Known about the structure:
The complex is a heterodimer of chains A (328) and B (321). With 328 residues, chain A is an alpha/beta fold. Chain A has 10 helices and 10 strands. In chain A, the strands form 2 sheets. In chain A, strands 6-7-8-3-9-10 form a 6-stranded mixed sheet, with helices on both faces. In chain A, β7, α7 (189-206) and β8 (209-213) form a beta-alpha-beta unit. In chain A, α4 crosses α6 and α6 (159-171) runs parallel beside α7. The longest helix of chain A has 18 residues, at 189-206. The radius of gyration of chain A is 21 Å and the shape is globular. In chain A, 48% of the residues are buried. Chain B has 321 residues and is an alpha/beta fold. Chain B has helices at residues 20-26, 59-67, 90-99, 117-126, 135-142, 159-172, 189-206, 217-223, 241-246, 251-259, 298-302, and strands at residues 3-15, 32-44, 48-52, 74-79, 82-83, 100-103, 177-181, 209-214, 226-231, 234-239, 308-310, 313-315. In chain B, the strands form 2 sheets. An 8-stranded mixed sheet of chain B has the order 6-7-8-3-9-10-12-11, sandwiched between helices. Chain B has a 4-stranded antiparallel sheet with strand order 2-1-4-5. Chain B is globular, with a radius of gyration of 21 Å. The mean pLDDT of chain B is 89. Classes of the chains: A alpha/beta (328), B alpha/beta (321).
Amino acid sequence: MTDAPTLSVRDLTVEIPTRAGVLRPVDQVSYDIAPGEILGVVGESGAGKSMTGNAVIGLLDRPAQITGGEIILNGARIDNLPYDRMRRVRGKQIGMVFQDPLTSLNPLLPIGDQLTETMLEHLNISPKEARERAVAALEEVGIPAARDRIDSYPHEFSGGMRQRVVIALALCAEPSLVIADEPTTALDVSVQAQIIALLKRLCRERGTAVMLVTHDMGVIAEAADRVAVMYAGRLAEIGPVREVLTRPRHPYTDGLMGSTPLASKGLDRLRQIPGAMPRLGALPDGCAFHPRCPRAQDRCRQNPGPTIAACDGQAACWFPLERTEAAE
Amino acid sequence: MTVLVRIANLTRIFDVSKPLLNRVIERLPKALLTAVSDVSFDIPERQIYALVGESGSGKSTIGKMVVGLLRPSDGNVEINGIDLATETDADRIEIVRSDIQMIFQDPYASLNPRWKVRDIIAEPVTARGGDGKGLAERLLEQVGLSAEDAGKYPHEFSGGQRQRICIARALASEPKLIVCDEPTSALDVSVQAQVLNLMSDLKDEFGLTYLFISHDLTVVQHMADTIGVLYLGRLVEESSPDQLFDDPKHPYTQMLLAAAPKMDGFGREVEPPKGEIPDPINPPPGCAFHPRCPIAVDRCKRERPELRTLRGARVACHLAE
């Protein structure tokens, strides 16, 4: 894509000072998202996926804070904005869809009020027009009889319908970036398919950039254009989704793909990665994955660890898998 | 193959009415929710029978009735020929009870945070007056943890390790049947692979039988010997994994398989399934799936389809062939 990226994250580092030392849940992460592109972010719990998303929207919980790097949205830096200015950016330029559709809606307000409130805050329109737009937004996300249901409360909707409302809410101020943090994890398979199809269609139509955080490889494969794999706060691998999923170069990506039941079809046992992800307080020297890595050599144990820039541009690994070796 | 669990016409109805006074004042009828409706299947010894379905399909309710945490409203569950709900002989009940164990979904909620792991694992044995000495240490090693972990508390472990502790606890009373209710859905994929492999190993080692409840088709395909698909409390299809995935017969199974994300489905444009699971308090008449079914005919609206045998599988659909 030749367009300037909507979101550009450069060497983002988030730190949490604790009594036992400084933890780094996000460590020098860099990526771009182009207009209309869906970037999938995968990784296991504690890999720093959600923390990266929260850093971009400026919703880090204290004491976590951004200590390095830049976040550039539509050409302007947003990581150092004061709280009030950031509030304008959030909602107007960045929309958010969270995992649990019940807790991201106000249970005491009809959904129509929540939509118009957001639009009146960020767009220069009259309340009447806002209401018309709210109806249109609900229709667009596939809520039947939107005009009759606009004054319903969140509890009157099912989980899938609520997530549609949340998507309408995220998109109603016409943001250029949507951060969807595990948007379908709480939903059933058939509803998940509906929500993913909806997200894909709306973003393609409007040219919205999407950061899709999930742990489900299948969802990534179907929805994302590019995928970033995170491990222990660092980017392990990034690239076009087809490349990364079918011919992973980082041994961790390879292990992760292999351990899904789909990839082990026909085998008696699932492939498994030995051990568990290290805690942030006890990261090993060098590459954080080396204690679990079948290919680890002396260089992997030495600092500084591999970064994507220092390696081949796709995987942060000194000894990446060759194209032919992976997925054997 | 001997049948370990025989489930016949199992039905469970929950009363979800408002309190009596409200009903009288507001003139509301009683509201009854049929969570499980006329489900029958057998689980042979040393097999894995998987129940899949979306939320509200009644899979967990069946699991709870099998272990005896809920009483059936109708029908029965026989384990080794003994029905816990009607059996009156205390000794026989005791024998069957120690043959059944359960593993729950959330390993954070199913371990007592104030107990040491040693006491948690030994409880199923000590509660019956057995001797639990050294048992926890032995079982911990069997599930891939170390004997020293017995002196720790649950909060010192990660999710995957906690699920291993739950498995160790389930093994303590040397059960024949383990009901696993979504045992890996709270876990990451790489940890899930470890736990599923462990469960397969233990099954072979101890000759266990599993009733495996899950919403994840890929997990079920990997684990199960037989799969039962539930929709709105009814068993709509039952077949072997290979048959189910290669040749799904019920339109609901077909829809479910088409909707499941695929690893090689790059940029796949799926026609997403229409509608959602209907309200179980007022289920549609006839076949419960007919409002969402692409091939439904008039007969489906009137007549509830019975399970019938078709090419080595059982399917509840008038039109499947």
